Amino acid sequence: MTVKGYSTCVLVIVLAELVTGLEPNPKGNEELRNWSVKQIDDAKQVWVWTAHEVAFDVAQIAVDCIHSVQYDCKNPITSDNVLSKLKDIVRLHSVPTWDALDNDRCDICLVNTRVNDVPDGHDLDAPSICSNRIRTCCSCLRNTYINPIQCHTCGHTIKSFINSHCGAVLVAGFDNDRGASNVFKSDIRKFKVVITSKIFPAMCLEDENVIVVPEEANMHSMVKTIYSAIDHMSEKDIRTLLFVYSGHNGIYGLRVGEQEYFTMDMLSKKLNAWKRKTSSFEKLIAIFDCCEPEALELNKSLKVVQLNATGLGDEAYATRNHGSHFLQCIIQAFTANATGGRCQHQNCQCISNVYGEFITLDKLLNCIDEHRRNGHLGGIIPTENVQNINIKNEILAYNYNLEVVLRFTLEWPIMFETNKAFVSPSMFDKFDELKRQLTEDVIKGAFGKNNISSEIRSMFGSIMRIEIDTGPKIKHTKEIDTVEMLLLEWSSMRNLRCTFRRPSDIERMKPAGHFLQDGQCVKAIHQQCKIEKPFSEIDLGEYIKWLQLCERRDNSKLLNEYIHIIMILQRKRLLRNERLGISFVDLPKGFTCAYMEIVPESSHS
């Protein structure tokens, strides 16, 4: 496999980081990927790289990698080449394959304390007799979903015991009132985001191991759909099942459809059948956010954690604006330390119960109870039922206690210097909400004031482009246009850039902009043009001729620049069945934006 593009840049940066101990973008210096061999070697960590020639050889590999892409060489370096070179270094300098430090530190990061008294991920697939097990910390163990670890001694792949072989069935209940049904569905969607998120890595479940019932536009029997979801999990070697229900419960059971009910007895029998069929199924975590849930009657060998919003005879509560008090409390406990470490209620200190590297059942129950005692659960008293749970298997999730903030580089021609914007994922649920937040940051950075018209704000949001680099050249970029893509790229440690969509990147439903300083003359010439607007492909050619005539008359550098942009659009041949709309918007500080969008032919007629 040829290593090129972004993968090569990542490898270069990682190797340079290992040698120098610096960040990818050191303050006061150019990016590491642009350093020479001598620069990297001169900045090496001498206390780490005691064999100085080894550091030099690693730096040489890094530079060779980037050169093979930048200069389009005929024989680019491959991943096999890199591996071979690294092995040669190891052999030449008699570097041991592994040399564990004589302390309690993680063998991977060498910084954090290794985990103790919890499964280390060695024996999840098959028991291994390992004389010198690799030692991992909580962070490295959690990150195995993106950075797999192989034991240096036995070669066993280390897997996180929290998300490996773990699946979830999330069920939203039914109500005759569509608004109430939407509350249940919203709660379930939010819970799915939390357990699959790589931004707030509480559980890091894989999306394909999480089933939501009902799925959109599901017209099948809900009872059959739930049975099918559990069957699907049993066929995937799932060993820990998370079952969550949010909705109504009554004398007929959990109300999952207009005339359908799913009883606790039905669920118990289904899970017991799974256990009889597959002995590897070993643990159930069940959350019932409903009134009066009964205790499940399960196989005595199963480990069971059942959390109930209420006890028998009590009612659960939810609001249309905030959803269920109980489920929101659990979601908050799983994510609060990554969003500032505070409860959403100012005087509630419930989150102080969630400490350390893992969220255990005991910590979660204490958090919920303090939240209740402070009056934030609507008067309900949650209950729990446990079976075969002890101090070694009560861990529910990771406690990610570093505040998560997305950092964006703001690059706009209306800003005289590159700025940074910092946004917490808790500030937005939808991509448009993020763009509105970034719009405010751009406006403040460019104009230093907030009294900007809604028209300008709307235009900025529509032409805003969030992108990442995919290679070493300027053209190697990719636009991010969903929350899912954004979080994936952030979790992969990509640099996020907020800029504007240039005319060369215009598409249907993706408008573009071109900024001109002191561009009133170009705006006036556009308004004087009598050609029918928005422009068809033929009209655009006539428009260019008109602009060129005006440019010869006025000898305007700005107009010449604008003509060049329009000619690029013409060469893209985007208007065979569509039209190009162009309008000019005046901005503060003498700027003008030429706003361009592709509109369907039908909208013109």
TrEMBL record:
Gene Ontology MF, one: cysteine-type endopeptidase activity
Any Gene Ontology biological process: proteolysis
Keyword Signal recorded: yes
Range of residues in the leader sequence: 1-21
Keyword tags: Signal
Xref: Pfam families: Peptidase_C14 (PF00656)
Organism: Dreissena polymorpha
This protein's name: Peptidase C14 caspase domain-containing protein
UniProt entry tagged with the keyword Ligase: no
InterPro entries: Pept_C14_caspase (IPR011600)
Lineage summary: Eukaryota, Metazoa, Spiralia, Lophotrochozoa, Mollusca
Residue ranges occupied by any Peptidase C14 caspase domain in the UniProt entry: 207-339
